[in-house]
Description:
The protein folds into 2 domains: 136 residues, Thrombin, subunit H, CATH 2.40.10.10; 119 residues, Beta Barrel (Thrombin, subunit H), CATH 2.40.10. The protein is 8% helix and 35% strand. The strands form 3 sheets. A 6-stranded antiparallel barrel has the order 12-13-14-18-17-16. The protein has a 6-stranded antiparallel β-barrel with strand order 5-6-7-10-9-8. Strand 5 and strand 6 form a beta hairpin.
Amino acid sequence: MQLILAFFLCLSCCCQIPVVTADENNENAELLKESQPVINSTLVGDNQEDVVVRVSDGQQAKERQFPWHVRIKSVKDREAIYCGGSIISADWILTSAHCTFGFEYLIITYGSIYFKKLPHKTASRRWIIHNGFRKRETHHDISLVRVRKPIIFSKDVQPISIVRGDDTLTDFAGQKAIVIGFGASEKRRTWSSTLLYSIVRIISKKDCENYFVQGMVGADIICAQGYYSNTAGSCAGDSGGSLVMRKDDNSYVLIGITSFESQFGCGQGIPTGYTLIGLYSTWIRKMTGIP
């Protein structure tokens, strides 16, 4: 089998990078007035490749189905990429490291399934990138974003719990999961106007290693493929979004963060890589103070 390189799932290799307009700059300046300087862990390198992941062949989400999902606009030098993220408390958003590394500030919008009609907006106060993350590497691709003002919860806005206990030690191989994002397909590489989700199956690490070059699928990575269709899953445009499982009480638990896809893009039957949150549960609690 041919071994495959991987690319982070951000944004500009397949789509035009959005330009931040003057009006947006003024609005963002208001949001950032009380913000503290961004705090990053020490990293190797400067800007990451502008590559982001989106859901491919997804189904349209219902209102309030995934109330933890946020859209992150990462801005530098009046250019930006979009990523996804997950609300894990009133103060913290969980996303991919490559969605925050090298950027000047982040704008977070949330509260609806409609891409252009997200009713709530805030800015980053600071963010913390795992100190093991390195540019153009797939390991430790995790970042915590502190928002400027606490998020107010409602029927439309809720946090998601992260894995706990024995689940922090499992890779969930063979189990069904859901990936979420404002997605595209391999044929339609444009934003979806509504939030999408796809059903995926988590595969074993050994099976995933058969697709990618040696060392790319580390201990902190889980991989998934479409459950009902090979073309279903993450695709370019929504890195940082959530990989979740439904519990017996029909609530959801966050098990992964969308990280990378193959060099051939989405919809090819090739697995997508996700950061395994269970290995970082202690780090997340230490950095955020979340019980």
